[in-house]
Design brief:
143 residues, alpha+beta, 5 helices, single chain, Sufe protein. Chain: A, 47% helix
Length: 143
């Protein structure tokens, strides 16, 4: 990916993140994630109905990588089935750790394909993934 396009996508999603701001609704799964190596401290909420992700929201303080990764991931996951979400998360994680992955499945999240070159930023890029995985685990435990 062209570095200028990558930078623009990350900056746009940092400056005007998608679905930032929490709401009062008990029908959402909720979790909090933070990073020991960065300022990242985010609250997440996700609504799943009939096995489909209907909404994901977040709020808190985070660096440009965490905020933009969260924004892009939310846009990628809304409207997907739980199984599709798991597949996207697995491919994203594989990309981050430089394993084989399917670019078509992760959409704009591909902007982080070179994040492994900055090891101190890997956790920042994985923060939204950790949050979604925690909420999916909570969903599984509720059943």
């Amino acid at each position: 990916m062209d570095p200028n396009i990558r930078r623009e996508i990350i900056l746009d999603n940092y400056q005007e993140p998608y679905n930032k701001g929490l709401i009062e609704d008990d029908n959402y799964l909720k979790t909090r994630t933070n990073s020991e190596s960065c300022i990242d401290d985010l609250n997440f909420m996700m609504k799943i109905e009939d096995g489909i992700v209907k909404d994901i929201r977040f709020d808190g303080e985070a660096c440009a990588i965490s905020t933009s990764a969260t924004s892009i991931m939310i846009q990628t996951l809304i409207g997907k089935s739980v199984q599709e979400v798991k597949d996207i998360l697995n491919n994203y994680k594989d990309m981050i750790y430089e394993k084989d992955y399917d670019k078509d499945k992760i959409g704009e999240l591909v902007v982080y394909e070179e994040i492994s070159k900055q090891p101190n930023r890997i956790n920042c890029a994985l923060l939204p993934l950790v949050a979604v995985e925690k909420m999916l685990e909570e969903l599984k435990n509720e059943k």
